[in-house]
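Lab notebook page, bench 4
Experiment: in silico fold of construct C2
Operator: M.H.
Input chain length: 244 residues
Purpose: comparison with the prior construct
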Amino acid sequence: MNTFMVALLLGLWSGVAMVLNLTGLGVRTALLSGVIAGLCVGDVALGFQIGAQCLLLSVGYYTYGGATTPDYVTGSMFGVVVAKATGSFDVGLTVAIALSLLMTQMDILGRASTTVFQHLADGALAKNDIKMMEVWTVAGTLPWILSRLVPTFIGCLLVDQVAAITSFATSIQWVSNGLAVVGKGLPAVGFALLLSYMDIKKYWPFMIIGYVMYAYMGVGTLGLALVGAAAGMLYVGTTNGGAE
């Protein structure tokens, strides 16, 4: 698929997914967006890898009270495209994180722009013009769409320039080594955030069991998730049964 089509499809997905997310469907995730980007560039495995890393990094972030957080969803798509263009997973992940932070500015712009449409809707309602009130309310989704669609589309169109710059940078050994260290170390930050939200003092046996299964028995992530879900259900069932 050529660069323009990749940019167009990912731009459309980014904008539409943003609105769907506002409806409560929750389809706008770093993992799903990474996989979609992987499909567009012809490397689904790479999409899973970058998307999963970005999803892990986003753990613990939420827009409480309308707060702006790094947009790891958009970042995951950029990361996949750049990683495919440069042939470097570490470069892709580093670019994904940098652009996730940069996208906070577009999030602020999108949120602020919606107030214009809200005031217009309020004005129409004050005149008892229900039709225009509905029109302005729906039009209020445009800033949300454009705040993701435009940067994703333009960024993916310019991926060749990004690839050239990153290829030159990674040709310098100390830069390449630095990116490799950063790329491998960042997932640890996501795990640290996840552990900080868990009651380790109470549930430490589950953590030890999971660690032993992964480190010494070679159980993969999916296997750990299934065992964890089963153990969680047994624990909740036993606890509830005891309470009754």
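Observations: The chain has a mean pLDDT of 81. The chain has two domains: 3-113+141-197, 198-244.
Next step: discuss at group meeting.
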